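Figure-free illustration: sequence to structure, shown twice.
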Amino acid sequence: MERNVAYVALFAALIAVLGLVPQITLMSGVPITAQSLGVMLCGAVLGARKGALAVLLFLVLVFLGLPLLSGGRGGIGVLAGPTAGFVVGFPVAAFVTGLVVEKWRAPVTWSALAGSILGGIVVLYGFGVVGMAWKLGKTLPEAALLLTPFLAGDLIKAVAAALVTRGLEQVRPWMVLSRA
């Protein structure tokens, strides 16, 4: 039990630390950040439930006002901007990523890659597109088109999440709770 709580807190902190990587904001107002890599890792390493809990803990801290999102953003006001859909989608993305890794018993590299693509890109983009369309007054296809510059970087993050998960499984298999 204590180990699970520690992992949830550790991975919430990991998402926060990945927000320190300098962001690049595109004209859509949505920044390119490393935090979605943290969301993918939460699901791939911790599994669906614990991964989503880690992201929810992170979001509680953000909503309380801590400047943990990229660019030092925090507070409930983050839900008023074009990134609102992504913020809301973070825990769902981690859950779906973890669910794929838990259920698909392929080698962890492949299941973590598939989970990261499905949860950390497809699901997260789904939430992001809806949020951007709503906040920017765009149609869903217009908002989706605004996300195309993010795709290559997010695919790289999905590969990184898969490789990190595989590396953890090789050196500390007991840490990969999604495979426990």
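We now fold a second protein in the same way, so the two outputs can be compared directly.
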Amino acid sequence: MKSNGPRLFCFGLGYSALALAGRLRARGFAIAGTVRTPDKVPALQARGFDVHLFDRGRPLADFAGALAGASHILSSVPPDGGGDPVIDLHGDDLLLLGGIEWAGYLSTTGVYGDRGGNWVDEDSPLDPGTDRGARRVAAEAAWAGTGLPEHLFRLAGIYGPGRNPMVGLRAGTARCVVKPGQIFSRIHVDDIAAVLEASIDRPAPGRAYNVCDDEPAPPWEVIEYAAALIGMDPPPRVPFEAAELSPMGRSFWTESKRVSNQRLHRELGVRLAYPTYREGLAAILAREAGDGDPGSL
């Protein structure tokens, strides 16, 4: 489906990509992209999006047709044990694309590894401490080799409507696990979209940006603030050593760092709508009260 105006193609029309799509749609962009399962197609088509099926076992049926007219590309598809599925299945196709004004890859601050609570910025060495982080480093390099005007966005922990500590508190699944010295950075999904939009307006191919808010904080502090916000008692604090965590859950606690976002402020001119988790959670709660739908974007 070709468009006469700008067209964004998203590999992975998921949580973060849809937040950007909403902003760009309001500016006249046509939106296209991929989902993994057929059940997601009707709702996105109802929004006027051109939707295609794609995953590791199912390459795009017609790459040229799906990408026809694309001026901007975003990939939020995470690497798996085999590598980056988009690059592995369509890397050669990407090399042949023309007319792309901007491309973005959503990575993670996990590429920096554990820094013992110290600060990192985009010039810090990449030193992943997990297989998951190492796969991201490899994926970043793969996307940089496509020849596209590529921009890297290293995202901190994502939260927003439908995906935040208040959801876990209400469901009774939130836990206040405490590990002294543990610091995480996070980012509201709307601020991710704002950063991506600003980059589209100020392209700088080859540049990497840390996408996080202004205040790294211990995770239990955020849970307790969220509980107070919705008038609930917080879960009891549990020492990390005594917490029963899955191997995946435990792996997130092996790394502690403070992530600097000064480049996105300085170079992209972004002023975050939610500079800390306090503004972000309060806005989500206010939105719930206004529209009764905590999961809407």
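Summary for the second example: Confidence is low (pLDDT under 50) at residues 292-297.
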